[in-house]
Known about the structure:
The protein is of the alpha/beta class. 29% of the residues lie in helices and 28% in strands. It has a 7-stranded mixed β-sheet with strand order 15-13-16-18-25-24-23. The radius of gyration is 23 Å and the shape is globular.
Amino acid sequence: MTSLSPTLMIQGCTSNAGKSYLTSGFCRYFANKGLRVAPFKAQNMSNNAGVTPRGLEMGRAQLLQAQAAKVTPDVRMNPVLLKPEADTLSQVVVMGEARPDLKQIPWMERKSFLWESVQESLHSLMTEFDLVIIEGAGSPAEINLREADIVNMSVALEAQAKVLLAADIDHGGAFAHLLGTWHCLEQNEKDLLLGFLLNKFRGDPKLLGNAMDWLEERTHVPTLGVVPMLRLALPEEDAFSLTPEVKESVAKAKVAIIMTPFISNFDEFDSLLHEPNIEVVWVKELADLEGADAVILAGSKQVANDLDYLKRSGLASKIHKLAVQGVMILGICGGFQMLGTSIQDGDEVESATTEILGLGLLDVQTQMKARKVTRQSTVKLVNSSIALKGYEIHHGETLAGGGVRAFLSDGLGFQQGNVTGVYVHGLFDNTSFRVEWLERLGVEGSVEGWLERTNIELDKLANHLSTHCDMQSIEKALNL
């Protein structure tokens, strides 16, 4: 019988408790100790997605965790990805491929369709790796969802994982959250709890007094870490922070990114957030566009709806005026499609309207297609030999008219004056592209590679957890 590796699971009392952050840190910590580590999250809900080397789709948080673990991303690390399209509707991606047949199945009835993929992915990783570090979702205390659970205690029981339960102490009520969550668990689930983590702590540790002893007396679960707040250029949970870091230098240019209702893949702008000489503004109303030197239309999970939002809000008209004034306009993926003259959707892939008028800033037309393109891409700027790496996730094919010129190779990007549209996500992670783009704004960009910086930040995070968590007890429980 094949032996299975130990598993460590990070669950949270609430959303935004820092589960993704902690999972990434533990992945890097154990990878740095020479173990072959795999991250795992059975089901993720996020419109921030990426593509594996095999051209399959998975959540960006798990892609980062694979980087933290120093292993190649694999869809088994995130077998189910839900991409919200409305309050009660999501695209369902299973093992990296969209499954339209599952979209309309009620939430509480999906387990029978998804659990086998979760089980097989989990067990295969436990067979191939020395350690699997699992991330939960939301909270295991959501007893109304217990029967449909495929991501929290169902996974913990399947893996017989050692579970660390984290609470966001910065928002208050952490001890009540931990005790209340413990009370909501069944006894066999409580038996898996290895310890509690107080995450995002600020202030004097003496203020905690004997609260951890009080909690342990009631639960028989020790607190194995008080993790201070640490500002790093890394994402928390399923999306990169929309709050730019405080900068010492005075911004020399303003980059405005439009926050449409169904914005997707906005994590790709994280490298811009940390550029020292620019101010990045997330645009939610017309006033946010004032003084913009560049405007970016990001990807979209619902292009037709987001385009309608731009028109109704007056943002479309304002973007037109800025384009006429010479402000740089960049559209990526869905944003690229919006910049064109029209979007044809005869098969009703995204809309019941067969033809949708675009913003008319690029002489291109998009034909929506049911088949979804997901692939890693290596492209070049026209008249440049420098290779740029990125990825594509989109429905549709865009054809160029006579008014545009090629911007990227392979028909993946076009330009018309100061307006540019591309299908490739992740271009700003390429130092050469980011520096050249900022030069057009009259700004000097950082020459530090984003991948290299991310790895430095992951090492800082691993060291931070090593300092503030009882790693000796954790490793002993895992028999490492």
